[in-house]
Amino acid sequence: MDNDFSHIETLENAVKWHYFRNDLSWPIDKTAYEMNVNERRLIEWVNARASVITGLLKSDPGKVDAIREKLKEQHAPPQLEESPEVLKLDPVKVGREYMKGELSLYDLAVKFKCDYNKFRVWWNRNLSVINAQMKRE
Prior knowledge:
Layout: H1 11-23, H2 28-35, H3 39-48, H4 50-59, H5 61-75, H6 91-99, H7 105-111, H8 116-125, H9 127-136
């Protein structure tokens, strides 16, 4: 086994390894692909040189932060956008309509003149109130 990791052992690769594996929880094959390194070679590097990788991460906090910010811009998981329009529906009224058993969730969204996807989000957020209403009636 060749223990020369000089082509892998860089500050940038140490930050990439840490970010992809710890922050994004990527599998090893995707991490190796993104780092442009052979998967088996990457595993060997991490297993043999973990203390060196940690030392690299602590060596220059300014550069580490800069590399990390660049990675966040390129590979950040998509953020769910909060809808600026919050549905103003009465959970009791919606629950009563649902209890009649005639309408599906899609039909309820149409009846209350809502976008179906936004209605589903509203429904899931208000489900405890709707269930409590259904138990009372």
